[in-house]
Amino acid sequence: MSDNSPDLDDDTGTFESGLPGVLGTIDVFISKLEAFLLAAGVMLMAINTCINVIARYVLGEGLFFSGEINRILIILITFAGIGYAARHGRHIRMSAVYDTIPVKGRRVLMIFIALVTSVLMFFLCYHSYFWIETLYSRGRILPALGIEIWWIYIWAPVGFAITGIQYLLTAIKNLTSKDVYLSTGVTDGYADTESEV
Amino acid sequence: MATIMMVIMIGLLLLGFPMMVPLIAGAIVGFVMMFDGFGQMGTFIQQMMAGIRPASLIAVPMFILAADIMTRGQSADRLINMVMAFIGHVKGGLAISTAASCTLFGAVSGSTQATVVAVGSPLRPKLLKAGYSDSFTLALIINSSDIAFLIPPSIGFIIYGVISETSIAELFIAGIGPGLLILLMFSIYCLIYAHLNKLPTEDKSTWGQRAVAVREALWPLFFPVIIVGGIYGGIFSPTEAAAVCVLYAFLLEFVVFKSLKFPDIYRISKSTGLITAVVFILVAVGTSFSWIISFAQIPQSLLDSIGISEMGPVGVMIAISVAFFIACMFVDPIVVILVLTPIFAPAIEATGLDPVLVGVLITLQVAIGSATPPFGCDIFTAIAIFKRPYWEVVRGTPPFIVMLLTAAGLIMAFPQIALFLRDLAFR
Amino acid sequence: DTWRYAHEEYEGDVQDVFAYDFKEYVEENSEHTVQVYRFGELGESDDIMGQTLSGILQFVNQSPGFTGSLIPSAQIFFIPYLLPTDMDTVVEFFRESEAINQMFPKIYADHGLKLIQMYPEGEMVVTANEPITSPADFNDKKIRVMTNPLLSATYEAFGATPTPLPWGEVYGALQTNMIQGQENPIFWIQSGGLYEVSPNLTFTKHGWFTTALMANLDFYQGLPEEEQKMIMEAGDYAFNKIIKHIDGLAQEALDKIMADCKECTVTRLTEEQIDAFQARAPQVKEKFLSMTGETGEKLLNQFQEDLKEVQKDK
Ligand code: NA
Ligand code: NA
User: Fold this and answer.
1) Helix/strand/coil for C141
2) Nearest CA to CA, how far is C90 from chain B (Å)?
3) Do you know which InterPro entries this protein is assigned to (chain A) (predicted)?
4) Residue ranges making up the domain that contains B296
5) Do A61 and C69 touch (CB under 8 A)?
6) Which ligand is nearest to the CA of B145?
7) Structural domain range at position A64
8) Per-residue pLDDT reduced to its tens digit, B61-81
9) Which value, in Å, is the radius of gyration of the alpha carbons in chain C?
10) pLDDT mean over B49-56
11) Which residues contact B284 (CB under 8 A, 6 or more apart)?
12) Beta-carbon contacts of residue A133 (< 8 Å; ≥ 6 apart)
């Protein structure tokens, strides 16, 4: 119900970075890594949950660490996914008003949207880092797996940072081009036809 | 404080910001005003993480994954073919088949969008060819897909269940009655519409063809058995049922039908992960948002100001329905459930309303509101998928909205429509 | 000032009544007001504890079972048959125990918390699909427990298969026989309607549901001495009122259950039957000691001494 681009074909197959040279190569690598983590996270979650159901029937009880593994995976998926969604312009938005604005206004508005979103992402990155420090100092552990709990949240600041960078790049892309870009690689779907007028 | 938060959020929302931004900004403003600065942002982050912690949420990616596998495979087509074989030939049969297929596919899929794609895409050309107007066709597809939201599994029920600490299994079971009621109403409307417009009927299938169609659809028909039967029989929790569905969908499409190849699983998992992340980041920031409004006691003062304590159970149900309906005309359903459920929680508790009944009503309103102009997000789904103009998509919706609101009224007047099956299973 | 106080239960439950008694005393004896937040309003148990540690909340009421991941030795209350079994002795134990009144405050202080008051909520009662009279009856039964390793150890020791489940799923899981039993104080069994789907009540006498009111230590120490004193008095005041409140509450709940449910049975274990369960307690003690080390050992020894002390008076 909530992906705003419900086209079920793979529309996130290729990704071209908005960055030049080595930075671009790194960016494409990060994008591939994110895609891999997303897919692997979902597959592992499916496998883990299925094995747990089977174990509950065959052995009479579930695996005691299954819940904690899923908890780790869901954080991984969420925070690897927000950056990936930002790259491909897939975050849910209500664009009805936005869509009625002519292309120039949309470009200005998109620059504003991307910049504000970027700032908020860096803000949350900063605070999630300090939150993890607090967790570290309290030294709590995951009871079944025995690992320190702060580890599982490491993806939060990383995901926020990547998302922030993506929105920053989107703002720059819009500043330097004629079309309107939802993300560095995705135009907003109306720009092509209208910019020719 | 509540006013400032509201103004900022609505402003950012209308400008077209990603929906997480209004929630983040609103919550940050709340934290800053409550604690005189950024000193408690740690709690903001902590509540985000608490939001995606509940184990029941694992059901969301699992059901999305199962539906994704089946939508790309053959299950949806086989279900549609079976429905068509039986009711395709009656007056309005093609339209009724569309509604029925949506309901049936809804028993596989947790989301409206997936259903629009899986059922709407193949059936729309057929409906147009048979002479149904495009506006009727689009409205039918959008609104019938909303039935999928009430038939288990449903992402809406999972999120509501997690937020309100209500049993997801009970919500699932309680959604079946209302879903079937709406199917019945839609079918009657289709029948009348077809008669009024003198639409031709399809050829009647022979019993031999029907037998083939049933045999083809037999495998996918096991999904509702796994979900409903599993929950009824106490074999699975909703999360476990979701995992079993994934396993089953995988075996079906990859091994039995051989409609997908192993490398596809990577693509499908990635796409599921992406949809999950986009929903869960909203759940995360939505939880921080509802934490701060709860801490500031905003729900209580808001409810007092509309005089909810004098309303009684029926009044509260109506107030909740109206609020969710209106909100979903503008904002994504997940966000609405995340923000409004905690606001109404004190009133629901105070009136002693059955939280399962409230959950069904809320989910129904969410479904209606999201198909209602101006901004209901189903409308934009349809625009995106079928590439039709806004007006064309919107024009046929009023009769469906009237029917859905009638259904909501009926459920309020006769809660047993929702609770009968639940009571049968769990009481 | 407005002091913020969060607990883990719903309106009218024991922790809620305690919170409002505490609030009443504070507001009558000072210029401060107390804002009470109930279950779920600010998150789950883990969350409200985190918020108290970071100073957003001044007071938190939390059961030691949930505090366990922060303060492992607080799980001592899950060791079966460690507390006395009858109401009067329990109350006396909580009033006079050195472990509770001297040792625990020190342990909590090490974690940034001022322990104000520990109090019992009610005796744990097991409900199951058939009456339980011996550990053998627990074999092949999945018993729902709160998510806590020591509590799981207790039911393992009793011979059952402990199954952690969130509270919201308990009724349905019992109804559909996914689990065959659970434990809770009797008034929760009554208010949650659990007896409808799990009609055989057994009073195993193995433990009391215990809970504790705490304050953020920095907040507490930052107050003038007379206000610190006032807070501790408010804790005593609420304790005295809650003891009267829970006295009879259990019987009332049981009467309601029996009036409503014809098929319900009540089993009260005899001394010999209790001995069979009590014989399984040492392995839980072992587990507790392995989790808590020296602190746990001292605490456990003191608990056992305190117990002898109060039982001697009888
Ligand atoms: Na569904
Ligand atoms: Na909808």
Assistant:
1) coil
2) 33
3) DctQ, TRAP_DctQ
4) 54-426
5) no
6) 2
7) 21-187
8) 999 999 889 888 888 889 888
9) 19
10) 88
11) A78, B48, B49, B51, B52
12) none
| Residue B270 to residue A12, Cβ atoms within 8 A | yes
- Domain-embedded: residue A42: yes
How many separate helices (H) and strands (E) can be counted in chain C? Answer: 15, 10
Report yes or no on B20 lying in a domain. Answer: no
A14 in a structural domain = no
SS3 C83: coil
The reply to whether B203 falls in a domain is: yes
Q: Rounded to an integer, what distance in angstroms lies between the CA atom of residue B258 and that of residue B262?
A: 10
Residues C287 and C296: their CA atoms lie apart, in Å, by 11
B chain contacts of residue C40, beta-carbon cutoff 8 Å: 165, 345
Q: Is residue B12 part of a domain?
A: no
| Cα–Cα nearest to B70, from B127, B62, B60, B123 | B62
Distance (Å) from the alpha carbon of B407 to chain A's nearest alpha carbon: 21
CA distances from A106 to A110, A190, B86 (A): 6, 10, 50
Whether cis (ω within 30° of 0) applies to the bond prior to B54 is no
Question: Quick check: is A2 in a domain?
Answer: no
pLDDT value at position A5?
36
**Per-residue pLDDT at A37 exceeds 90:** yes
Pick B308 or B298 by higher pLDDT: B298
* Token pair of C200 as six digits: 């055989």
| Domain count along chain A | 1
DSSP assignment, residue C124?
E
Backbone angles phi, psi at C123, to 5 degrees: -75, 140
| Cα–Cα distance, B13 to A93 (Å, whole number) | 8
Length of chain C: 314
Q: How far apart are CA B108 and CA B147, in angstroms?
A: 12
Residue type, A101: I
ipTM for the whole predicted complex goes beyond 0.90? no
Residues of C in contact with A61 (CB under 8 A): 142, 161, 163
Is B49 within the bounds of a domain? no
* DSSP state at residue C33: E
Q: Is residue A156 part of a domain?
A: yes
Quick one: closest CA in C to B45, which residue?
A: C47
Compute the average pLDDT of residues C36-47.
Answer: 84
What does DSSP say about strands C2-6 and C59-62: parallel, antiparallel, or unpaired?
parallel
Torsion of CA B136, B405, B366, B420, to 10 degrees: -120
Closest CA to C171 of C141, C186, C193: C193
Residues from chain B contacting residue A117 (CB–CB below 8 Å): 17-18, 21
User: What percentage of residues in chain C have a pLDDT greater than 70?
Assistant: 99
**With contact defined as beta carbons under 8 Å apart, do C38 and C27 qualify?**
no
Q: Which of A16, A5, A38 is nearest to B268 (CA)?
A: A38
Which two three-digit tokens encode residue B176?
A: 């079946």
Among all ligands shown, which has an atom nearest to the Cα of B364? 2
Q: What is the maximal distance between C-alpha atoms in chain B?
A: 74
Q: ∠ at Cα A32 (A31, A36), nearest 5°?
A: 120
Residue C166 to residue B35, Cβ atoms within 8 A: no
Is the separation of the CB atoms in A113 and B17 below 8 Å?
Answer: yes
The number of domains in chain B is: 1
- From chain B residues 325-384, the ones with a CB under 8 A of any chain C CB are 345, 349
Rounded to the nearest angstrom, the minimum Cα separation between A145 and chain B is 16
Q: What is the per-residue pLDDT for C125?
A: 95
State the pLDDT at residue A11.
57
Phi-psi map region of C147: left, alpha, beta (phi>0 left; psi -120 to 50 alpha) = beta
Q: Is B232 on the interface with C (CB under 8 A)?
A: yes
